[in-house]
Amino acid sequence: NRWRLMLAQGFRAPNVDDFAKFRERNGFIQIPNPDLIPERSNTLEAGYRFRSAGGWRAGLTAYHTWLRHAIVRQAGTLPNGSPVFINQGEGLRVQTNVNAESAKIYGFDLVVTWDIDERWSADGRFSYLQGDRKQPAPDGSILTLPQDHIPPAYGRFGLRWKKGDLEIG
After folding, report:
1. Which residues, other chains included, contact 8 with Cβ-Cβ below 8 Å and sequence gap of 6+?
2. Where do runs of H (alpha helix) occur along the chain?
3. pTM of the entire predicted model
4. Are 151 and 131 in contact (CB under 8 A)?
């Protein structure tokens, strides 16, 4: 049996693109925001692994990350107050990076392996991740929105056969 507990802190400073670069992509123009401040994170992770006499091995890891001042993209305006930038007759909606009030990301990973005999084994993995953030709306209220770039739950199951240097699975 093996237990583990980890606490970590992180820091991400806005980069030069956030402060000084205009980017056009997919009908949007992203404008710089010189008022961005660094985002900071605190993560707690706990895990447990065990191995049984019957050839079973399993592990579970759960984690939770709290972000302060997370850097997120939202609709913005130009210095003249317009939400649209006109470029060669084409209107591009304005976006900018801002600091969210807070965000959290949490989930778990599960791994199970069974050595059926000296040639056959089965294993499975499953991962789940979730997240949300609190972000100011244009009217000043605070919205709770799903966090960006969170993949759906996923997993796999496999069966292996091994003899000498040959392995299929």
Report:
1. 41, 42, 43, 45
2. 16-20
3. 0.78
4. no
